[in-house]
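Lab notebook, entry 816. We have the chain sequence and a SMILES string for zinc ion, and the next step in the workflow is to get a structural model of the bound complex before anyone spends time on docking refinements. Request logged below.

Task: model protein plus zinc ion, output structure tokens.
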Amino acid sequence: MPRFADVILPLAVPGRFTFSLPEGDEVKSGMRVAVPFGRGGKLYGGLVRRLHDEAPLTSTREILSVLDAAPIVTERQFLLWERIAEHYLCTLGEVMIAALPGQLTLSSETRIVVNPFIAEEPVRTDRSGVLIAALLEREALSMKEAGELLGLKNPMPAIKRLIDEGVVIVEEELREAWKPRTLTYVKLTDAAHSEEALHQWCDKLEKKAPKQLHLLMRYVELSRCMSDHPLEVEKNKLLHLSGSSPAALKPLIEKGLFETHEREAGLPAQALIDKAGPSLSPAQAAALDQVRSGLAAKDVVLLRGVTSSGKTELYTTLIDEAVRDGGQVLYLLPEIALTAQIIERLRARFGERIAVYHSRMSARDRTELWVRMAHGKDAPPIIVGARSALFLPFNDLRLAVVDEEHDPSYKQHEPAPRYHARDMAIVLAGMHGAKTLLGSATPSLESQYNAHSGKYAYAELLTRYGDVAMPAITLVDLRDAQRRKQMRGHFSQPLIDAIDAALKKREQAILFQNRRGYVPVWQCESCAFVPNCDHCDVSLTYHKKLHQLRCHYCGRTYPPPTQCAQCGSNRLRMIGFGTEKIEEELAEIFPEARIARMDQDTVRGRQALDRILTGFAQGAIDILVGTQMVTKGLDFDQVTTVGILSADSLLRFPDFRAHERGFQLMAQVAGRAGRRDTPGNVIIQAHEVRNPVLDLVTRHDVEGFYQREIEHRRTHGYPPFLRVLALTLRHRNEERVAAAAADLASALREHLGDRVLGPDIPAVAWVKDRHIRNLLVKLRRSAHHEEKAFVRECIDRVFAQPEHRAVQLVADVDPV
Ligand SMILES: [Zn+2]
Ligand SMILES: [Zn+2]
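Result returned:
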């Protein structure tokens, strides 16, 4: 009989914690237990990792209660967590916090509130009634306060029961909860849905109501209503594309031709699920063959498929096969909000066999899916999600698909674990004996290298669906255009002409500028002074609509200056430009066009993002101006023109990935141009047109870019040849952070020599009142475990010194 349990606590403290087991209760690995920890005896809901009989040297505290009747974390998940903690230099507790939905992580500090979405609260005669009354009055209570009210030293089991019943929820989860958007759909009534009935309707309308007839004809076209699987048509789309007003639709509903209903966007009605599967083009079928033989030979296949080539159809075919066998599939996407279209298509194909999982879902939905999967109870076999979906308790994963595998948002930045979801998906798949398919139009250098070296299998799909040509890309020399005075604001004549031509044909355009705001720099003309943030070493960006200066590092705002703070001159000029300025200039050049802007300022809420994306899809917006967001996975079939306002700024990221990132961004946004009958037109404006990366972009030369860049990485010793570990030190006092960085660097150099770069003073060296120093450590791939252990040891040694203890350190393995 084991007498002890090693427990993982939801805390960023290193080490393992052993508790003695209570009598009677059955405890298994993967169950949560309430345990006291620390001097104050705070309570934590920890996870039992291992049961054993090895008495620790020091005395142990006892587990207070067992919270779960069955494990909620599997052995494989623990193994993945351990891999992540080891690889990314963090604690198991940090991984646990990132992995578990918030409702499952409990501690004395956990604040609970009454679930506002509960229909009706059952009458309670026990003490929990007192608690709920108190919660309704005070809005939120900590676990500790709840314990005092209930008269319980260990309130965790009682609270956990209330959470399970859905009566209370964890407060921090409340903020995030959003309700899915609903749309109105139009379809024929059953009575009208026959060829004969439709003919009668047409005859009737032809004479009396030509506008209504036009609406009906457009509906027939859009719904494919004579096929076996008629589609409903979204109301606004129907009205817009038929040029009808709601007044034309209303009588048709009243007379019984159409009916409408509201549904969550993207959720297909059950009957409409397209079970037949896609019919593949010859090019797609050939690529699928390559993928299949790749999957048979290797664990990982890299699929390079140009934009609009129809990679998704390949994925769905493979997903279908995997789940038909009874297995599970994980489909990762870099950003859920921006990839709603793909989810919509997957749902149309797989219906209820799909579950979507990401951090913006309601806490209850996330928790419920987790628990269903952990208990192996009829959970959907296909999980689509952002990076956190890889933490779900899979029990029989067969296939992991990582779409847009090059996308940097697969890497978590803050807080730890700073894991890369693509890389960990491959590890997860390996643990299940499953295969991984990586897809991208512009694969990461690492993945291409692995394909070239034979570690991954490789497949490609280089023709766009329907044999549409790749867009024509034109480079415009801004220096030359400025010299000849041929610019209108930040627009060159070729770009203006291209947009103009698109608008005349009622096509759409996307414009990409990497900076948000209006102008990034106000400078004094007399003394060259630039207003900076008072808390960061950053110049402030002017936002015209809000009429304020903002720091993009800490978010502080300032009133715009009327005179120079240094010399008092009132001659201030504005340098540079952001999306807001582009939007304004566009409105002057194309006063008739309907323009929208998509950046962090305009899409703060999910609703706002939905409005923009829906408006663009329905044709209510002609030109979309945006930051990086517009480069991601947006597929709109009326977009024929794409403009990149300032390519130089994309190639100037201050790190070794600058060119890779710039190439990917430009190739991705260029790929948004083109549709069934037009290949599309891309204009790239740049000051430095001779940059060889631009030439490779215009020729769509992914392989050429790879060859050029990989040589550079080899020569200078960067990934994929060496691993990189970025160390960032922060402190209010500059001398202290500099001293700690210097000590750490010299400790690391004892073994790693010139593979330690820095300490560097970064371009932005002071953020939120803290001074920053950076170190970059290159690790040999063959010995990175040992070398990381050495780094850990150096960190422990240096930061144990009293003068360095307060310096904050962040370690980022494989930074992107
Ligand atoms: Zn001045
Ligand atoms: Zn700031």
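Notes for the group: The longest strand covers residues 42-52. Worth checking against the assay data. Confidence is low (pLDDT under 50) at residues 175-180, 266-274.
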